[in-house]
Amino acid sequence: MKMRRWSYFLAGVSLPGFGYACAGYYTLALATYVFAFAAVIGLSYLATLTPLAFVAAIIVGPCFLIFSGVSSYRLARSPRTVVKKWLVACILVPIFLFGPMRHFERVIMFAVPTDSMSPSIISGDHFALDQRPSGYKVGDIVAIELEHPNRLTLRRIKNITGESVSVATDTNEYPPSEIPSHMLRGKALYIVYSRVPGTLTLRKDRFLLPIAN
Question: DSSP states of 134-148 as a string?
Fold first, then answer.
């Protein structure tokens, strides 16, 4: 029984409300998911305004999941109904994994592997990327699908003409290019933290740093 109850804890920390659903508390599971969904939307919007909201999301998110896991562990019921609950839970998994929550995740963390945008963004920087900005302007550092599909590259906007955007690197490592605006995948907001490439050493001078336009 103790091992089974730990499985509820693991379900609770893996997805919002999943542990409650496994334990048979479906209303509580739905309420938890709705709350997490609202939190994602709210913090994603606030993260476009201040890096403190992004930091808050990094801290609050795991704490919320741990609380959900502990609560699920304590609410675990009799083993006689475990099979039925897990069958229902398995049906709910695709909803939790591929539901609308991920679609509304507006700000994500993006790691930089090269120095093509130095000195604004250097190799090892991890910065916040707004996937759905209200608009773009000349000077913005943007993520685009340039060399390969589903592989993002950083460039700075040099000019905007109708449906086309002229972009280039800050180091002139590559020649300027003109791309259709639909290839833009987001705008860099601020550096969250930076790490020396190949090590775990953090750069103390690049924490919550605004990105220069």
Answer: S---TT-EEEEE-SS
> Could you give the C-alpha distances from 172 to 19, 97, 147, 183, 188, in angstroms and in order?
51, 41, 16, 20, 19
Rounded to 10 degrees, what is the CA torsion of 28, 33, 38, 42? Answer: 120
CA-to-CA dists, residue 37 to 21, 49, 95, 195, 202, angstroms: 16, 19, 12, 31, 32
Q: What pLDDT digit, counting tens, does each position of 37-96 carry?
A: 888 888 888 888 888 888 888 888 888 888 888 888 887 765 444 445 555 555 556 555
Compute the C-alpha angle 183/186/189, nearest 5°.
155
The angle subtended at Cα 49 by Cα 43 and Cα 52, nearest 5°, is 65
**pTM of the model as a whole:** 0.71
Domains of the chain: 2-103 (no CATH), 107-210 (2.10.109.10)
CB distance 8 to 22 below 8 Å? yes
**CA nearest to 40, candidates 93, 99, 116, 113:** 99
Angle among Cα 44, 45, 51 to the nearest 5 degrees reads 75
